[in-house]
Amino acid sequence: MFHWVGGLSAASFYVPYKAVRHWSWEIYWATGGIFSWIFIPWLFAFTQTNDLIGVFSRTSNETLFWCYFFGLAWGFGALTFGLTMRYLGLSLGMAVALGLTTVFGTLIPPIYEGTLGTLSQSISGKIVLFGVFVTLFGIAVVASAGRDKETEVSQKNSRESIAEFNFSKGILVAIFCGIMSACFAYGLAAGDEIRALTLAAGTDTLNQGLPVLCIILAGGVTTNTVWCIYLIVNNKSAGELIGNVENETQIDAPKIILSRKILAYNYIYCALAGLIWYLQFFFYTMGESQMGQYSFSSWALHMASIIIFSTLWGFYFKEWRGVSQKTFFKVCSGIAILVFATIIIGWGNSLAS
Fold first, then answer.
1. Which of 189, 176, 135, 154 is nearest to 346 (CA)?
2. Residue 7: Cβ within 10 Å count
3. What's the rounded Cα separation, in Å, for the pair 281 and 269?
4. Which residues pair with 244 in a beta bridge?
5. Which regions of the chain does DSSP assign to beta strands (E)?
6. The whole model's pTM is what?
7. Which helix (H) or strand (E) holds 63?
8. What radius of gyration do the chain's Cα atoms show?
9. Residues 6+ apart with CB under 8 A from 229
10. Residue of 174, 168, 185 whose CA lies nearest to 99
11. pLDDT tens track for 201-234
12. CA distance 87 to 78
């Protein structure tokens, strides 16, 4: 249930951004990032764990470095994730990007640690691994349905629901995003020492992953900040933060001033998006803490639930309007397979208990 709530949060965080008016991508992405990568993670860690600063002071430099490094690498994935949504929409964008993320983020850690062979020798381990592969199959079905949608729906309808739709550019961005985003799973795996120290300090089991998120997201915010500053300087969009925006109706027209109400709502929507984004990993770490020796399967559960809910959001925003019954049945089948996969992984985990 924790992974499902986290998946719902991850699939929903981009929705408030759709309500932001007259702001460039780099402005609302950086504004939301201040909340999701800096303010909220440290607020939650300070209030939900014990002796946060002491835990970090006792953590080895090696652990801090690798958590930060993988967060830095993941930042490239997070950065291009927003671009994936811009070019492909919620449904197809998440299916392609998260499909690759699932493969690398789920299977690489146990392969690297040398535990995959051991896990596959038990009945429960085989069931969990089977559930992971069913997840990959479900993602492939959803992605295939998304590709069929793009061939069936006219370019006009695509652009009505996705203003900057560009399939070829979106696919390239999504592939890069999917590979780099898997580094978040590596960062979580690298934070075992931090989790042990915060548990020793008296932190509740469910909240043991919150300090790890602070370090990983510190790396992620570094990548995103550098890129957003570059775009802000290049596009001369800094004035948008105080309401000075380009006149979108006339070329070379003087800037217009947003009303205080619109500007305030932009900040509110970005803060809400940042909070919802962070909640995905807040609940993810809770779910992972309950997975025992099969914690690696948490990543597959997380990705599956994201795709399920993002596809439902795609239905809501009419991204699938105009598709054939065959394609609609295919995407619904993909969702059903992903739900079935989460049941399989949960069943295997319960047998191990």
1. 135
2. 27
3. 20
4. 257
5. 244-245, 256-257
6. 0.77
7. helix 61-113
8. 21
9. none
10. 174
11. 999 999 999 999 999 999 999 998 999 999 999 9
12. 15
